[in-house]
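User: Mind token order:
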Amino acid sequence: MITEADEALLRRAIALAAHAVALGDAPYGSLLAGPDGEVLAEAHNTVRRDDDITAHPELKLARWAARELTPDTAARTTMYTSCQPCGMCEGGILRSGIGRVVYALATEQLVELNPDSGAWPTVPTDGPALPEEARAPVAAYYRRT
């Protein structure tokens, strides 16, 4: 359920997206709010500026949360973001332990505005291959820790 407090923080994420556009960056903005609603960190998309395909604000904040927050605090944070996180960012959010995401624009709505946003090809994959060989370094690592 989206509350009035959620809406206020979501409007801040949208303002970050607008600021990104003013700077010449792509129109995406996000923030992390702690358990009490305090803004902990903010970011906007800098993919073009940084020449880094991973410079999405959601992924930047997920990295920040994993580095700076305890697992308990991360689990009680909420990410507010101007658009629904992509698959790459979803993975980072999951691994960071962030507890909740609230977004303003769904992926389907983004694709209506920018059809290229939905034009990602699928990458063929094959495997598993050589699982016994691959198992050795993984098993050695986890026996060590």
Observations:
- Helices lie at 4-22, 47-50, 57-68, 71-75, 87-96, 107-113, 131-144.
- The CA atoms of residues 45 and 124 lie 28 Å apart.
